[in-house]
């Protein structure tokens, strides 16, 4: 049995260019990755290596506190809704953290968020609902020192809807 050695134009007769090019390419990539740092898509995503001690979920509820289907009614998911609220909070309080902002700033951001959400709603889907009020609510789940889960629910703000 014979083996065929396919040489490229960059290979020297003894094959020295082949490993030198590979080594040079690896070094260039290594230098670029160090220079780029922790930027997507060259990141090891350290945010997933340590979990926070608490997590929260923002949702929109009706006047009775019943959660509304954000995607179906407002064409927005829970994570996107939270980002929209945080954007409004950042404009008013210079922070995205509702726990660090003043209560009146949180309320004002929630009202602005809900007004925008209602204005951009899918009207044909909300007509059937008997909505008189929208509430921005947040559920926080945390773990205490005894490793017991705690659940806290808070209304951030609300708006009245005119019939």
Spell out the blueprint of helices and strands.
Elements: H1 16-36, E1 54-61, H2 70-74, H3 78-93, H4 103-119, H5 123-126, E2 133-143, E3 149-160
| Average of pLDDT | 83
**Shape field:** elongated
Radius of gyration: 27 Å
Would you identify the regions where 5 or more consecutive residues have pLDDT less than 50?
Answer: none
Order of helices and strands: HEHHHHEE
Q: If strands are numbered along the chain, what order do they take across the biggest sheet?
A: 1-2-3
Largest sheet: 3 strands, antiparallel
**Straight-line distance between termini:** 87 Å
Instruction: Specify the number of helices.
Output: 5
Structural class: alpha+beta
Tally of strands: 3
Beta-strand content bin: 15-25%
Residues in helices, as a percent range: 25-40%
3D architecture notes:
The protein has 163 residues and is an alpha+beta fold. The protein contains five helices and three strands; from the N terminus they run H-E-H-H-H-H-E-E. It has a three-stranded antiparallel sheet with strand order 1-2-3. The longest helix is centred in the N-terminal third of the chain and has 21 residues, at 16-36. It is elongated and about 85 Å long. The chain starts with 15 loop residues before the first helix and ends with a strand.
What are the main properties of this structure?
single chain; 163 residues; alpha+beta; three-stranded antiparallel beta sheet
Give a brief outline of the structure.
This protein has 163 residues and is an alpha+beta fold. The chain contains five helices and three strands; from the N terminus they run αβααααββ.
């Amino acid at each position: 049995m014979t083996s065929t050695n396919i040489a490229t134009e960059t290979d020297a007769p003894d094959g020295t260019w082949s490993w030198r090019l590979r080594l040079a390419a690896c070094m260039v990539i290594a230098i670029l990755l160090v220079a780029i740092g922790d930027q997507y898509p060259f990141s090891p995503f350290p945010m997933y290596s340590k979990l926070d001690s608490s997590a929260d979920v923002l949702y929109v509820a009706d006047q009775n506190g019943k959660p509304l289907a954000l995607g179906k009614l407002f064409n927005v998911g829970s994570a996107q809704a939270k980002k929209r609220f945080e954007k409004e909070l950042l404009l008013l309080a210079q922070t995205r953290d509702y726990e660090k902002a003043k209560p009146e700033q949180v309320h004002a951001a929630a009202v602005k968020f809900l007004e925008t959400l209602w204005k951009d709603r899918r009207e044909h889907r909300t007509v059937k609902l008997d909505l008189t009020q929208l509430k921005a609510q947040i559920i926080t789940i945390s773990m205490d020192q005894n490793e017991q889960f705690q659940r806290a629910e808070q209304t951030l703000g609300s708006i009245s809807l005119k019939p």
